[in-house]
Amino acid sequence: MNILPEKYCNFDCVFxxxxxxAHKPDDTVEFEPVTSALQNLKEQIRRENPxxxxxxxxxxxxxxxxxxxxxxxxxxxxxxxxLLSNGYLLGREKFGAIANLCEEIVAEIKTVRxxxxxxxxxxxxxxxxxxxxxxxxxxxxxxxxxxxxxxxxVKKYNDDPQSIQWLMDTAARINPDRLMIVELDGEKxxxxxxxxxxxxxxxxxxxxxxxxxxxx
Length: 216
Ligand code: SF4
Fold this sequence. Notes:
The chain contains eight helices and six strands; from the N terminus they run αβαβαβααβαβααβ. The protein is α/β, with parallel strands linked by helices. Strands 1-2-3-4-5-6 form a six-stranded parallel sheet.
């Protein structure tokens, strides 16, 4: 489910399926009260009785000022929460504490060099790849829930053997419960930045050999 009225993300990825980031917050943003939306959410959960509720919003959902109320509402209905984040903010105490409320966190990485991180993902000024990885590692070390980690293979940026090794070393440090090795979303972007199913399979096999639990 999406809880952001429009895109709010601390990154502005060139390949973002949602489009450009008009709002690029690095901290909590105040939104309209969600009180009536919570009532609708409760009713929907009762109607559909899902196994879990996946909060997968238009951007970085951790910046929503009422995200804890939304998670609490889902928990009141006795459903676990899976939350998708690009992961950069997870290293900060305030945002890590919010993520700790969720039963599952999905985080990701798409680049292996700082200059590519800045070029392709255009994060908030001052962000760097090294801090990104350290934020993921420090969050993971204390997180008690299920940590799902998604690695996106981008042609010519991280599909060479050296980059794959870096990704394997980084994944080993993060030690996810499950690893997903994927390509970018969208047919158009895959034409230029996709590696193809065959190469993707080969990379997945490499990760599986290193004892990662790779899922698709
Ligand atoms: S992190 Fe995700 S939502 Fe944010 S700009 Fe990149 S692709 Fe879009």
